[in-house]
């Protein structure tokens, strides 16, 4: 009788073990790191599109450059009206984080200027194809496109 209970308990534990899958290991969120060998760093990137189809309309170009600086990567440029300065972080998974840019009001010569800093700070991933750089949001939506100059 004891042997029968033991076999039954063993069978039940095997069935329970077969029916469940081990939990997937939690994936650590990749922390963007300063990667000075990234193709984003160095060239001047001029904004050509806001979103996927709205062409830049400013009298002056909106652009940015990324360079290694004290304590990490720095971003500098223009929203077509005002100077942009901020911090930049990149990782090997094409993630990007831009912080510290201030979005101002629109300027007469750059009606889209206020949206430039907002678009850049919302960028989560990037893709480079030849001389084009595209920023994507967390939802994979195209935020803007740049061309290397």
The beta-strand count equals 9
Number of domains: 1
Indicate the mean pLDDT.
80
Largest β-sheet summary: 9 strands, antiparallel
Distance between the termini: 84 Å
Q: What is the multimeric organization of the chains shown?
A: single chain
**Global morphology:** globular
CATH architecture: Beta Barrel
What's the order of the H and E elements? HEEEEEEHEEE
Q: Helical proportion? A: 10-25%
What's the CATH topology name?
Lipocalin
Structural class: alpha+beta
Radius of gyration: 25 Å
| Share of β-strand residues | 25-35%
CATH class: Mainly Beta
Please mark out the parts with pLDDT under 50 across 5 or more consecutive residues, or reply none. Answer: 9-34
Work out the helix count.
Answer: 2
Structural write-up:
This protein is of the alpha+beta class and 149 residues long. It has one domain (44-148): Lipocalin (Beta Barrel). The chain contains two helices and nine strands. The chain has helices at residues 2-19, 113-122; strands at 44-50, 54-55, 63-69, 72-78, 83-90, 96-99, 125-129, 132-136, 142-148. Strands 1, 2, 3, 4, 5, 6, 7, 8 and 9 form a nine-stranded antiparallel beta sheet that branches. The longest helix is centred in the first third of the chain and has 18 residues, at 2-19. The model is unreliable at 9-34 (pLDDT under 50).
């Amino acid at each position: 009788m004891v042997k029968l209970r033991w076999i039954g308990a063993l069978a039940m534990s095997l069935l329970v073990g077969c029916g469940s899958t081990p939990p997937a290991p939690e994936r650590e969120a990749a922390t963007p790191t300063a990667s000075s060998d990234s193709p984003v760093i160095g060239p001047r990137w001029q904004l050509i599109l806001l979103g996927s189809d709205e062409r830049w309309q400013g009298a002056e170009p909106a652009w940015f450059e990324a360079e290694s600086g004290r304590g990490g990567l720095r971003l500098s440029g223009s929203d077509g009206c005002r100077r942009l300065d901020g911090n930049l972080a990149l990782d090997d998974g094409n993630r990007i984080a831009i912080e510290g840019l201030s979005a101002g009001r629109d300027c007469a010569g750059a009606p889209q200027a206020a949206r430039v800093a907002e678009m850049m700070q919302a960028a989560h991933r990037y893709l480079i194809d030849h001389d084009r750089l595209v920023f994507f949001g967390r939802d994979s939506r195209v935020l803007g496109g740049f061309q290397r100059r």
